[in-house]
Amino acid sequence: MGSFEDLLARGTAWLPPLVAVLVSVGVLAGARQILIVKAQPQAINKRVILRQLAMLVLTGSCLVAVILTLPVGDTARGQLLSLLGLLATAAVALSSTTFVGNAMAGLMLHAVRHIRAGDFIRVDEHFGRVSEQGILHTDIQTEDRNLTTLPNLYLVSNPVTVVRSSGTIVSASVSLGYDIQRKKIESLLTQAAERAELKDPFVQILELGDFSVKYRVAGFLSEVKHLITARSRLHMTMLDSLHEGGVEIVSPTFMTQRQIREGQSFIPLVRREEPLVSHVPDGEKEIPEALMFDKAEEAQSIDQARLQMKLVVDKIAEIEKALNEATDETLKARLEATLDVLEQQRGHFEERLERMIVAAEQLKTKG
Protein backbone atom coordinates (compact mmCIF):
# COMPACT_ATOMS: atom_id res chain seq x y z
CA MET A 1 0.00 0.00 0.00
CA GLY A 2 2.92 2.27 0.76
CA SER A 3 4.49 1.63 -2.65
CA PHE A 4 1.23 2.55 -4.39
CA GLU A 5 1.06 5.77 -2.43
CA ASP A 6 4.66 6.56 -3.37
CA LEU A 7 3.90 5.87 -7.03
CA LEU A 8 0.80 8.06 -6.85
CA ALA A 9 2.75 10.82 -5.14
CA ARG A 10 5.45 10.68 -7.81
CA GLY A 11 2.85 10.74 -10.57
CA THR A 12 1.10 13.69 -8.93
CA ALA A 13 4.42 15.50 -8.63
CA TRP A 14 5.01 15.17 -12.39
CA LEU A 15 1.49 16.34 -13.22
CA PRO A 16 2.25 20.12 -13.15
CA PRO A 17 5.20 19.89 -15.58
CA LEU A 18 3.14 17.65 -17.86
CA VAL A 19 0.33 20.19 -17.83
CA ALA A 20 2.89 22.97 -18.42
CA VAL A 21 4.28 21.08 -21.44
CA LEU A 22 0.82 20.54 -22.92
CA VAL A 23 -0.19 24.16 -22.32
CA SER A 24 3.11 25.38 -23.82
CA VAL A 25 2.63 23.26 -26.93
CA GLY A 26 -0.91 24.56 -27.32
CA VAL A 27 0.16 28.18 -26.78
CA LEU A 28 3.05 27.90 -29.26
CA ALA A 29 0.85 26.19 -31.87
CA GLY A 30 -1.86 28.84 -31.50
CA ALA A 31 0.67 31.69 -31.56
CA ARG A 32 2.31 30.30 -34.68
CA GLN A 33 -1.06 30.02 -36.38
CA ILE A 34 -1.94 33.61 -35.50
CA LEU A 35 1.43 35.34 -35.85
CA ILE A 36 2.95 33.45 -38.77
CA VAL A 37 0.44 31.52 -40.87
CA LYS A 38 -2.67 33.73 -40.87
CA ALA A 39 -0.80 37.02 -40.70
CA GLN A 40 1.62 36.10 -43.50
CA PRO A 41 -0.42 37.37 -46.49
CA GLN A 42 -1.32 40.68 -44.88
CA ALA A 43 1.93 41.32 -43.00
CA ILE A 44 4.64 43.65 -44.16
CA ASN A 45 8.03 41.96 -44.43
CA LYS A 46 9.55 43.68 -41.41
CA ARG A 47 6.56 42.69 -39.28
CA VAL A 48 6.98 39.07 -40.27
CA ILE A 49 10.47 39.27 -38.78
CA LEU A 50 9.08 40.76 -35.58
CA ARG A 51 6.48 37.99 -35.37
CA GLN A 52 9.21 35.37 -35.78
CA LEU A 53 11.17 37.07 -32.98
CA ALA A 54 8.04 37.06 -30.81
CA MET A 55 7.72 33.31 -31.40
CA LEU A 56 11.34 32.86 -30.31
CA VAL A 57 10.77 34.83 -27.09
CA LEU A 58 7.54 32.96 -26.41
CA THR A 59 9.32 29.62 -26.87
CA GLY A 60 11.98 30.66 -24.34
CA SER A 61 9.30 31.76 -21.87
CA CYS A 62 7.49 28.41 -22.17
CA LEU A 63 10.76 26.59 -21.57
CA VAL A 64 11.34 28.60 -18.39
CA ALA A 65 7.78 27.85 -17.25
CA VAL A 66 8.31 24.11 -17.71
CA ILE A 67 11.56 24.24 -15.70
CA LEU A 68 9.82 26.09 -12.87
CA THR A 69 7.18 23.36 -12.58
CA LEU A 70 9.63 20.43 -12.50
CA PRO A 71 9.41 18.36 -9.26
CA VAL A 72 13.02 19.03 -8.27
CA GLY A 73 14.67 20.90 -5.45
CA ASP A 74 15.33 24.60 -5.50
CA THR A 75 19.03 23.96 -6.00
CA ALA A 76 18.50 21.76 -9.07
CA ARG A 77 15.92 24.17 -10.48
CA GLY A 78 18.35 27.05 -10.02
CA GLN A 79 21.06 25.06 -11.76
CA LEU A 80 18.77 24.38 -14.74
CA LEU A 81 17.85 28.06 -15.01
CA SER A 82 21.50 28.99 -14.70
CA LEU A 83 22.36 26.54 -17.48
CA LEU A 84 19.64 28.06 -19.69
CA GLY A 85 20.95 31.56 -18.98
CA LEU A 86 24.50 30.40 -19.66
CA LEU A 87 23.46 28.99 -23.04
CA ALA A 88 21.70 32.24 -23.94
CA THR A 89 24.73 34.25 -22.84
CA ALA A 90 27.06 32.04 -24.87
CA ALA A 91 24.85 32.47 -27.93
CA VAL A 92 24.98 36.26 -27.58
CA ALA A 93 28.75 36.14 -26.99
CA LEU A 94 29.24 34.22 -30.23
CA SER A 95 26.80 36.41 -32.17
CA SER A 96 29.49 38.19 -34.18
CA THR A 97 30.32 35.07 -36.17
CA THR A 98 27.35 32.76 -35.76
CA PHE A 99 23.70 32.28 -36.57
CA VAL A 100 22.68 34.73 -33.85
CA GLY A 101 24.98 37.37 -35.35
CA ASN A 102 23.15 37.26 -38.67
CA ALA A 103 19.81 37.33 -36.83
CA MET A 104 20.84 40.43 -34.90
CA ALA A 105 22.08 42.04 -38.10
CA GLY A 106 18.75 41.20 -39.77
CA LEU A 107 16.84 42.88 -36.96
CA MET A 108 19.07 45.92 -37.26
CA LEU A 109 18.48 46.17 -41.02
CA HIS A 110 14.72 45.94 -40.55
CA ALA A 111 14.79 48.49 -37.75
CA VAL A 112 16.79 50.98 -39.83
CA ARG A 113 14.59 50.27 -42.92
CA HIS A 114 17.41 51.38 -45.19
CA ILE A 115 17.00 48.48 -47.63
CA ARG A 116 13.66 47.45 -49.12
CA ALA A 117 12.54 44.82 -51.59
CA GLY A 118 13.17 45.97 -55.16
CA ASP A 119 15.97 48.42 -54.29
CA PHE A 120 19.19 48.47 -56.29
CA ILE A 121 22.12 47.99 -53.90
CA ARG A 122 25.90 47.67 -54.25
CA VAL A 123 28.08 45.96 -51.63
CA ASP A 124 31.74 45.65 -52.64
CA GLU A 125 31.65 43.86 -56.00
CA HIS A 126 28.02 42.75 -55.61
CA PHE A 127 25.33 44.73 -57.44
CA GLY A 128 21.67 43.91 -58.00
CA ARG A 129 18.08 44.36 -56.84
CA VAL A 130 16.85 43.09 -53.49
CA SER A 131 14.55 40.12 -54.08
CA GLU A 132 14.11 38.88 -50.50
CA GLN A 133 14.97 40.04 -47.00
CA GLY A 134 15.08 37.45 -44.25
CA ILE A 135 16.20 37.52 -40.66
CA LEU A 136 19.46 35.73 -41.55
CA HIS A 137 20.25 36.76 -45.13
CA THR A 138 19.32 39.06 -48.00
CA ASP A 139 18.96 37.86 -51.60
CA ILE A 140 19.80 40.13 -54.52
CA GLN A 141 19.12 39.44 -58.19
CA THR A 142 22.01 40.41 -60.46
CA GLU A 143 22.01 41.70 -64.03
CA ASP A 144 22.40 38.09 -65.20
CA ARG A 145 19.12 37.18 -63.45
CA ASN A 146 21.07 35.06 -60.96
CA LEU A 147 20.42 35.19 -57.22
CA THR A 148 23.19 36.09 -54.79
CA THR A 149 22.68 35.43 -51.07
CA LEU A 150 24.40 37.89 -48.75
CA PRO A 151 24.50 37.23 -44.98
CA ASN A 152 22.99 40.12 -43.06
CA LEU A 153 26.15 40.36 -40.97
CA TYR A 154 28.06 41.03 -44.21
CA LEU A 155 25.68 43.88 -45.07
CA VAL A 156 26.07 45.42 -41.64
CA SER A 157 29.88 45.10 -41.72
CA ASN A 158 30.37 46.66 -45.20
CA PRO A 159 29.27 49.94 -46.76
CA VAL A 160 26.01 49.49 -48.71
CA THR A 161 25.04 51.84 -51.53
CA VAL A 162 21.27 52.00 -52.09
CA VAL A 163 19.80 53.61 -55.20
CA ARG A 164 17.01 55.93 -54.05
CA SER A 165 13.56 54.91 -55.27
CA SER A 166 12.72 58.57 -55.91
CA GLY A 167 15.36 58.76 -58.64
CA THR A 168 19.10 58.72 -59.25
CA ILE A 169 21.78 60.35 -61.39
CA VAL A 170 22.89 58.40 -64.47
CA SER A 171 26.26 59.41 -65.90
CA ALA A 172 28.91 58.39 -68.42
CA SER A 173 32.36 59.70 -69.28
CA VAL A 174 34.38 60.05 -72.47
CA SER A 175 37.88 61.33 -73.26
CA LEU A 176 38.28 63.67 -76.25
CA GLY A 177 41.16 65.61 -77.72
CA TYR A 178 42.20 69.19 -76.94
CA ASP A 179 41.63 70.17 -80.58
CA ILE A 180 37.82 70.10 -80.12
CA GLN A 181 36.11 73.18 -78.74
CA ARG A 182 34.75 72.67 -75.24
CA LYS A 183 31.41 74.40 -75.88
CA LYS A 184 30.76 72.14 -78.85
CA ILE A 185 31.38 69.04 -76.73
CA GLU A 186 29.12 70.31 -73.96
CA SER A 187 26.32 70.98 -76.44
CA LEU A 188 26.58 67.54 -78.06
CA LEU A 189 26.76 65.69 -74.74
CA THR A 190 23.80 67.64 -73.35
CA GLN A 191 21.87 66.73 -76.48
CA ALA A 192 22.81 63.07 -75.94
CA ALA A 193 21.48 63.12 -72.36
CA GLU A 194 18.21 64.67 -73.55
CA ARG A 195 17.86 61.99 -76.24
CA ALA A 196 18.40 59.39 -73.51
CA GLU A 197 15.35 60.89 -71.75
CA LEU A 198 17.31 62.12 -68.73
CA LYS A 199 16.08 65.23 -66.92
CA ASP A 200 18.19 68.31 -66.10
CA PRO A 201 21.33 67.14 -67.95
CA PHE A 202 24.72 68.70 -67.19
CA VAL A 203 28.32 68.27 -68.36
CA GLN A 204 31.48 68.35 -66.24
CA ILE A 205 35.18 68.22 -67.00
CA LEU A 206 36.72 65.57 -64.78
CA GLU A 207 40.35 65.70 -65.82
CA LEU A 208 42.78 67.60 -68.04
CA GLY A 209 45.08 64.79 -69.07
CA ASP A 210 48.35 64.90 -70.98
CA PHE A 211 46.68 63.93 -74.24
CA SER A 212 42.93 64.36 -73.76
CA VAL A 213 40.13 65.97 -71.77
CA LYS A 214 37.83 63.70 -69.78
CA TYR A 215 34.17 64.80 -69.89
CA ARG A 216 31.28 63.54 -67.79
CA VAL A 217 27.66 63.89 -68.83
CA ALA A 218 24.86 63.15 -66.36
CA GLY A 219 21.14 63.53 -65.91
CA PHE A 220 18.33 62.62 -63.53
CA LEU A 221 16.47 59.31 -63.97
CA SER A 222 13.15 59.24 -62.13
CA GLU A 223 12.26 55.61 -62.91
CA VAL A 224 15.09 53.65 -61.29
CA LYS A 225 13.65 50.33 -62.44
CA HIS A 226 15.14 51.12 -65.86
CA LEU A 227 18.61 51.95 -64.50
CA ILE A 228 20.51 49.42 -66.64
CA THR A 229 18.68 50.43 -69.82
CA ALA A 230 19.17 54.12 -69.08
CA ARG A 231 22.94 53.72 -68.76
CA SER A 232 23.14 51.78 -72.01
CA ARG A 233 20.89 54.29 -73.79
CA LEU A 234 23.06 57.19 -72.63
CA HIS A 235 26.16 55.54 -74.10
CA MET A 236 24.33 54.95 -77.38
CA THR A 237 23.09 58.53 -77.68
CA MET A 238 26.55 59.90 -76.78
CA LEU A 239 28.07 57.87 -79.57
CA ASP A 240 25.43 58.99 -82.06
CA SER A 241 25.46 62.67 -81.04
CA LEU A 242 29.25 62.98 -81.20
CA HIS A 243 29.44 61.26 -84.58
CA GLU A 244 26.54 63.35 -85.89
CA GLY A 245 28.38 66.49 -84.77
CA GLY A 246 31.52 65.45 -86.62
CA VAL A 247 33.50 64.59 -83.48
CA GLU A 248 35.63 61.48 -83.70
CA ILE A 249 36.14 59.34 -80.60
CA VAL A 250 39.64 57.96 -80.99
CA SER A 251 42.75 57.67 -78.87
CA PRO A 252 45.11 60.67 -79.20
CA THR A 253 48.01 58.20 -79.59
CA PHE A 254 46.34 56.53 -82.54
CA MET A 255 48.64 58.41 -84.98
CA THR A 256 51.71 56.79 -83.40
CA GLN A 257 50.34 53.38 -84.32
CA ARG A 258 49.07 54.02 -87.81
CA GLN A 259 49.64 56.76 -90.35
CA ILE A 260 46.54 58.53 -91.61
CA ARG A 261 45.88 61.06 -94.31
CA GLU A 262 45.40 64.69 -93.33
CA GLY A 263 41.72 65.42 -92.77
CA GLN A 264 40.78 61.75 -92.40
CA SER A 265 38.45 61.03 -89.48
CA PHE A 266 37.22 57.84 -87.88
CA ILE A 267 33.45 58.14 -87.83
CA PRO A 268 31.29 55.20 -88.94
CA LEU A 269 29.73 55.74 -92.35
CA VAL A 270 25.95 56.01 -92.16
CA ARG A 271 23.68 55.65 -95.17
CA ARG A 272 21.25 58.49 -95.85
CA GLU A 273 18.22 56.37 -95.10
CA GLU A 274 19.55 55.30 -91.67
CA PRO A 275 18.66 57.46 -88.64
CA LEU A 276 21.60 59.06 -86.90
CA VAL A 277 20.05 58.68 -83.46
CA SER A 278 19.48 55.26 -81.96
CA HIS A 279 15.91 54.61 -80.92
CA VAL A 280 14.94 51.80 -78.60
CA PRO A 281 11.70 50.01 -79.60
CA ASP A 282 8.63 50.62 -77.49
CA GLY A 283 7.13 47.95 -75.25
CA GLU A 284 8.66 45.36 -73.00
CA LYS A 285 11.61 44.79 -75.36
CA GLU A 286 13.09 48.16 -74.40
CA ILE A 287 13.15 47.15 -70.74
CA PRO A 288 15.48 44.17 -70.27
CA GLU A 289 15.20 44.76 -66.51
CA ALA A 290 11.84 43.00 -66.67
CA LEU A 291 13.76 39.82 -67.49
CA MET A 292 16.85 40.52 -65.40
CA PHE A 293 15.08 41.32 -62.13
CA ASP A 294 11.82 39.36 -62.32
CA LYS A 295 12.10 37.96 -58.78
CA ALA A 296 13.09 41.34 -57.32
CA GLU A 297 10.22 42.99 -59.18
CA GLU A 298 7.81 40.40 -57.77
CA ALA A 299 9.15 40.94 -54.23
CA GLN A 300 8.74 44.71 -54.55
CA SER A 301 5.18 44.31 -55.85
CA ILE A 302 4.29 42.05 -52.91
CA ASP A 303 5.84 44.51 -50.46
CA GLN A 304 3.84 47.38 -51.95
CA ALA A 305 0.64 45.30 -51.94
CA ARG A 306 1.17 44.52 -48.25
CA LEU A 307 1.62 48.20 -47.52
CA GLN A 308 -1.59 49.06 -49.41
CA MET A 309 -3.34 46.30 -47.49
CA LYS A 310 -2.14 47.75 -44.18
CA LEU A 311 -3.38 51.23 -45.13
CA VAL A 312 -6.84 49.83 -45.95
CA VAL A 313 -6.98 47.82 -42.71
CA ASP A 314 -5.95 50.87 -40.66
CA LYS A 315 -8.59 52.96 -42.43
CA ILE A 316 -11.26 50.33 -41.69
CA ALA A 317 -10.31 50.36 -38.00
CA GLU A 318 -10.53 54.17 -38.00
CA ILE A 319 -13.97 54.15 -39.66
CA GLU A 320 -15.26 51.46 -37.27
CA LYS A 321 -14.13 53.53 -34.29
CA ALA A 322 -15.82 56.63 -35.69
CA LEU A 323 -18.97 54.61 -36.39
CA ASN A 324 -19.17 53.39 -32.78
CA GLU A 325 -18.81 56.96 -31.49
CA ALA A 326 -21.22 58.55 -34.00
CA THR A 327 -24.71 59.57 -32.83
CA ASP A 328 -26.04 61.25 -35.96
CA GLU A 329 -27.90 58.82 -38.23
CA THR A 330 -26.85 60.61 -41.41
CA LEU A 331 -23.20 60.41 -40.38
CA LYS A 332 -23.63 56.74 -39.48
CA ALA A 333 -25.09 55.96 -42.92
CA ARG A 334 -22.22 57.77 -44.62
CA LEU A 335 -19.64 55.92 -42.50
CA GLU A 336 -21.31 52.57 -43.18
CA ALA A 337 -21.22 53.23 -46.93
CA THR A 338 -17.51 54.12 -46.70
CA LEU A 339 -16.90 51.01 -44.62
CA ASP A 340 -18.58 48.80 -47.25
CA VAL A 341 -16.32 50.25 -49.96
CA LEU A 342 -13.21 49.68 -47.82
CA GLU A 343 -14.26 46.11 -47.07
CA GLN A 344 -14.58 45.46 -50.80
CA GLN A 345 -11.13 46.96 -51.34
CA ARG A 346 -9.69 44.77 -48.60
CA GLY A 347 -11.19 41.67 -50.22
CA HIS A 348 -9.76 42.71 -53.57
CA PHE A 349 -6.32 43.33 -52.06
CA GLU A 350 -6.40 39.99 -50.21
CA GLU A 351 -7.19 38.07 -53.40
CA ARG A 352 -4.56 39.99 -55.37
CA LEU A 353 -1.95 39.49 -52.66
CA GLU A 354 -2.64 35.77 -52.44
CA ARG A 355 -2.27 35.44 -56.22
CA MET A 356 1.01 37.33 -56.12
CA ILE A 357 2.36 35.19 -53.28
CA VAL A 358 1.40 31.97 -55.10
CA ALA A 359 3.06 33.26 -58.29
CA ALA A 360 6.19 34.22 -56.31
CA GLU A 361 6.35 30.76 -54.72
CA GLN A 362 6.01 29.14 -58.15
CA LEU A 363 8.78 31.38 -59.49
CA LYS A 364 10.95 30.49 -56.50
CA THR A 365 10.30 26.77 -57.06
CA LYS A 366 11.27 27.03 -60.74
CA GLY A 367 14.24 28.95 -59.47
Provide an overview of this structure:
- This protein has 367 residues and is α+β, with helices and mostly antiparallel strands.
- The protein has 4 domains: 2-93; 108-162, SH3 type barrels (Roll); 168-282, Alpha-Beta Plaits, CATH 3.30.70.100; 293-366.
- Helix content is 56%, strand content 14%.
- It is built from 11 helices and 8 strands.
- The chain has helices at 2-13, 15-38, 45-68, 74-93, 99-112, 152-157, 182-195, 227-244, 289-292, 294-325, 329-366, and strands at 120-123, 126-133, 137-141, 147-151, 161-162, 168-176, 199-208, 213-221.
- Strands 4-3-2-1-5 form a 5-stranded antiparallel sheet. A 3-stranded antiparallel sheet has the order 6-8-7, covered by helices on one side.
- Helix 2 (15-38) runs antiparallel to helix 3, helix 7 packs across helix 8 and helix 10 packs antiparallel against helix 11 (329-366).
- The chain starts with a helix and ends with a helix.
